[in-house]
Model the fold of this input.
Amino acid sequence: MFQVLISDPLSEEGIKPLLEIDDLKITIDTNLSPEELEEKIKDYDALLVRSQTQVTRNMIQNAKKLKIIGRAGVGVDNIDLEAATEHGIIVVNAPNGNTNSAAEHTIAMMMAISRNIPQAYYALKNHRWDRKKYVGVELRDKTLGIIGLGRIGTEVASRAKGQRMNVIAYDPFLTKEKAEKMGIAYGTFEEVIKQADFITVHIPLLKETRHIINAEAFEKMKQGVYIINCARGGIIDEDALYDAILSKKVKGAALDVFEEEPFFDHKLLELPEVVATPHLGASTIEAQESVAIDVSYDVIRYLHGDVVRNPVNLPSVSKEIMQRIEPYFFLAEKLGTFLIDLTKEVAEEIHLSYSGELYDMEVTPLTRNAVKGILKKHLGTSVNDVNALYLAKGISINENKTPKQKGFTNLITLTVKTKSYQRKVSGTLLNGLGPRIVKVDDYSVDVTPKGHMVVIEHIDQPGVIGRMGSLLGKHDINIATMQVDRSDIGGEAMMVLTIDRHLDAKAVEELKQLNEIKDVVAIDL
Ligand code: NAD
Ligand code: MLT
Done:
C-alpha cells in the first residue's frame, strides 16, 4: 500500500483518480506547520502540493520513503529541486492545466488597471461617484510588451491582439521568424521594456530572473507605463516598483503575485495605482480540476512503475519514443553492472556508443540506465532514474551514435575508464530473443545478461577448461552456459560462464591459482 499525502487544498474532483486506486491510501492534511510536515513526511511515498507548502531540503532529508512530489500547477519554486534530485525523488508538475486561466487573469488585470475598475468600484462602494477621477486609457493601438513567450505569454499575446494591441515580446527561445508567424514583433529585453505601454511578465522565478524588472529597467521604460505580474513574486523588485510609482514613471501596476506570500500588510497595497489579487491566476474551477487530475495520474503512473508525463527533474520523453527505447533499458543497466564488476575499480570516464537502429532514437534514458547500473554497485538502491546522472556528476560521461550496423541491427557499447585501465562491453537486443552481451573487450560471446556469471581470463592451452570445470564441480557449482573466445591460437582468451549460484570469494581465489588462469571475476546481475 502506498501512502499519499496532500498538503495543500486541491480540487476534490481533480484528486478522484487517486481515491479510486486500491493500493493508495490518501491523507489530506492542509494545516500542517513546516515542522509537522517535516515529521509526518517520513511515512509517505508521495506528496501532492500546490504553491503553499514549502518542500525544503530539511523536509526532503527526512522523507526516507518519498518517491514522488506532485505540484498541481506550473512553478516549482516552492520545491528544493536539487535536494529532491539528489535523493532520487521525482518531481512532476501540471504545466498545461492552468495556462488558459492565468492568461485570462492577466488580461483581466490589464483591463482593470487601464480603466481603474477596482478603484472605482471601491469608491462607489464607499458612496463616492468619482467619474472624473477614474478616466482610463484604451488598450487599442497600445503596445503590450511580453517578457517570456512560453505557454501563458503566447496565450496572452493572442488575446491582446484581439484587443487590437500591438504586441512585442522577448524570450530567449523566440526568433524573429517565429514572432512574425505569430503576428507579433520580436525585441530584445531592452527593446521590449523601452517600447511598451503595458509590460507583462510570464517567466519562471530563477536566480537569473529575480528582480529582472528593477530600478535600472524602470529607468528605461516609457513615462506612464503599466506593469502586470501574474507570474511570480520576485521577478519584479517591489521596492523599485514602489519608487517608480511614486515618481509617476509607472502609472499603474496589477499584481497577482508577491515576493512573500501570503502577507497581510504590504506597502504596495497602500498606493492607489496598485491593483492586486491574492495569487488567483490559476484559481478557476477548470484549472484547479485540470492540474489536480494531471498530477494525480502522474503520481499513480510513477508509483505503479509507469512513465510519467510531466517530469520536472528528469527529461520528458514522449510515449512513442519511450515505447521504442524501453526494451533497451534492461540491457543498458545490465551492461553497466557487468562492466563495473569486471573493472573492479571506480569509473572515471564512461562512454556509450549507440549504433544501427539506435541511431535515430533518443538515447539519454539509456545512458542514464547504464550509469545507474554502474553506480548501483557502490550506492545500492539509493540510485534511480532521477538521481543517476546527478550522482555521477564527478564522472565524465559522453555518448555517440552512428547509423552503421556493426554486425547487429542495434548495438550498445559501454566503455569504462578507471584509474588503471579501460574496458568495454557490447550488448544487443535480438529480435524475439531478448538482450545479449555479444562482446567483452575484444572477445566475442553470446550471453544473456542475467543471474550469476563468472568471467575468466586465461591462456589458450589444452586442459584449462577441464581444470576449471572440475574445480567448479568440487564447489558444487553447475555451469549453465559457456562461451570461449581467444585472440589467437595459444594466445590470450576469455571464458564467460553462466552458473546456477553465486561464486564465492574462496572459489574465485582457487580458480585464480590454476595454471594458465590470469584473472577470475564473479558477476551477479
Ligand atoms: P513556460 O515555461 O511555458 O514559459 C516560460 C517562458 O519564459 C519560456 O518560454 C522561457 O523561455 C521564458 N524565459 C525564461 N527566462 C527568461 C528570461 N530571462 N527572459 C525572457 N523569457 C524567459 O511557463 P508558463 O506556463 O507560461 O508560466 C509562466 C509563469 O507563470 C511561471 O512563473 C508560472 O509559475 C507562472 N504562473 C502563475 C500563475 C498564477 O497563478 N499567477 C498560474 C500559472 C503560472
Ligand atoms: C502556478 O505556478 O501554477 C501558479 O502559481 C498557480 C498555483 O500555484 O496555483
